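Predict the 3D structure for this chain.
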Amino acid sequence: MKAAYYEGNKTFRIADVAPVPPGPGEVRLNVAYVGICGTDVHIYHGAMDARVKPPQIIGHEMSGTVAEIGPGVDGLAVGDPVVVRPLDNRAETPADRGHSHICRNLKFIGIDSPGAYQNSWTVPAFTVHKAPAGVDLKLAALAEPLAVACHDIRLGEVRKDELAVVIGGGPIGMLVALVAREAGARVIVSEVNETRLAFARELGFEAVNPARVDLPALCRERSGDSGADIVFEVSGARAAAATMTDLLAIRGRIVVVAIYPKPVELNLFQFFWKELQMRGARVYEPEDYEKALRLIASKSLPLERLITDVVPLERIQNAFADLDAAPNAMKVLVDCTR
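Done. Predicted structure below.
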């Protein structure tokens, strides 16, 4: 079988490798499609070499089918369509208070251990979720980022008719906007990239460039002068963090989705003055994956519109290089069946 090894220095190598037989509590999968994630791009740029330790097979946004089942595994059958929730919490301790998805010694499969850019992938069975029968495996490959959005919306406690602002119109931001709208919220997307603004409008969102529109005033206009009920900060931009409190109504809520590796400025006065709330949202929990799979099965979201391209595994090097050259792409899938 074929596998793509990240070698460091923006380089992938396609190699012939033997499938890994599943041990007790493991499942071997035939990988169908794997999405290129923003984290994968950071790895490609060398930003995570100390953690990934190349050469390493990466990739975690996958869909596929069950090929072989190890001893002690129940509830799965050969041929089942599946996705993988790539979190290995086997080092969890009582000090983690039962928050398995963010336990301190969590291992992210596809970063800390071999990932999905290969024809066959052997994983712990507890990470596997059955997809609905007959599901389009291309769409199922979006289950991982869609689960991120489901987690964000659930933690944000989004309610019908609330005004939600999503700051950042990349792949995760668009999925957050879609799931927020599915929950009944009125959604404004804030984005500075004109191509992504146009795409958001094509999907039916009110989308604005905060450099050209008075976004706080727009939020007040859309809410009877109150302001937004909730803001999802997905951009990772320092300016967004500094000004997101301006958008909110009294007792508004902020969900921080973006990763901020360094401290940034926040307007803490507005937290006091308006009694605002802020919470972080990291990865997902099993119920978020199940919600994502239900949404995929329902076909209620235009997920197919987010798939920019599908490339064979042998062209993974070109796919990453093309993303560098054309960063406006939403989601590129790697076809691991050929």
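The chain has two domains: 2-141+302-335, 149-280.
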